[in-house]
Amino acid sequence: MKALQFSATGDLASLQLVEVPTPVPGPGQVLVRIKAAGLNPSDVKNVLGRFPYTTLPRIPGRDFAGVVEQGPDDLIGQEVWGTGRDLGFFADGSHAQYVVLSASGVALKPRHLSFAQAASLGVPYTTAWDALERSGVVAGTRLLVIGGGAVATAALALAKVRGAQVLAAARRPEQVQALQVQGYPALQLAQPENLATQVGEHHAGGAEVIFDTTGFWLPAAVPALATFGRIAIIAAPVDGHVQLPALALYRKGGSVVGINSLLYGVEECAAMLEQFGRYFDEGLLPLPEGLLESPLEQGLERYAEVNQGGGDKVILIP
């Protein structure tokens, strides 16, 4: 089968389009023919060596949608989707014509999603779902989501389904406008010291949960937090450090929740996909738009574009 593979890290030049044997599933596993595979920034960082636990040689790629060709009888022929830390790090991933993984690591693909749409959602939606779950977002929760990227928009959509009082915030005017077009009240981020005032105009008493998807607003989020509030984070500055106003945080009884999608294997992620996947078929979640579908053979170029900050959501099609 054709696949993207790297045998060294540190440079995207180590990623090559190769011909490798089609994997053979073992007991309790499935062989999935990949119909579409998402390309995430973490896949690029993997090739660049940002994850020291990756074993080599390795086929990267976490998110996928496809059809089961071998495995348990009840799964053969089923359209499935999946994601998880195993893929591309400890086991070969989805940027290939086939992938092998646990039979419990796939979920039935929502009927209203195309293969490409389903493949675009794994990492962003499981990350957002985990953030809402672990920070206790339920009906009525006053929520602020900071950022205009895929995880932020996923969190807003899922929180709306839960009945939370959502508020979006982004720095760039075009991001704010895009969020407003999607139907979310959105504020434009200005100076960090003004965040609490901005949030207070929408959420009296502060936000009960603040989800910072950018990594830069943790210090400013503390004054904007309600009593016993939670701040969820998925990123940090390059050096990994921020100045946390700890006194203000503990006086409010606040807490910080770290969200890391790489803590969950394919089976745990499949359980998440099953939980929120039905919302797409029920018309409660927006269908992805504006995907850049690209042949797997052009994967090297697409990796380079994502590394350079390209804004398109890339879907590799074997």
How would you describe what is shown here?
The structure is a single chain. With 318 residues, the chain is an alpha/beta fold. The chain has ten helices and 15 strands. It has helices spanning 41-47, 115-119, 122-134, 150-162, 173-181, 195-200, 218-221, 246-251, 266-281, 299-307; strands at residues 2-6, 15-19, 29-39, 64-70, 79-82, 98-102, 107-108, 142-146, 165-170, 186-188, 207-212, 225-233, 255-258, 291-295, 313-317. The strands form three sheets. Strands 3, 4, 5, 6, 7, 14 and 15 form a seven-stranded mixed beta sheet that branches. Helix 3 (122-134) crosses helix 4 (150-162) and helix 3 packs across helix 9 (266-281). The longest helix is centred in the C-terminal third of the chain and has 16 residues, at 266-281. The termini are close together. The mean pLDDT is 96.
Structure described in brief:
The chain has 318 residues and is an alpha/beta fold. Helix content is 28%, strand content 26%.
Question: Would you report the number of β strands?
Answer: 15
Gyration radius (Cα, Å) is 20 Å
Order of H and E elements: EEEHEEEEHHEHEHEHEHEHEHEHE
Helical stretch tally:
10
Main attributes of the structure:
single chain, 318 residues, alpha/beta, 6-stranded parallel sheet, 15 strands, 28% helix, 26% strand, globular
Outline the fold blueprint.
Layout lengths: L1 E5 L8 E5 L9 E11 L1 H7 L16 E7 L8 E4 L15 E5 L4 E2 L6 H5 L2 H13 L7 E5 L3 H13 L2 E6 L2 H9 L4 E3 L6 H6 L6 E6 L5 H4 L3 E9 L12 H6 L3 E4 L7 H16 L9 E5 L3 H9 L5 E5 L1
Parallel strand pairs: 8-9, 8-11, 9-10, 11-12, 12-13, 14-15
Antiparallel strand pairs: 1-2, 3-4, 3-6, 3-15, 4-5, 5-7
Helix pairs in contact: 1-10, 3-4, 3-9
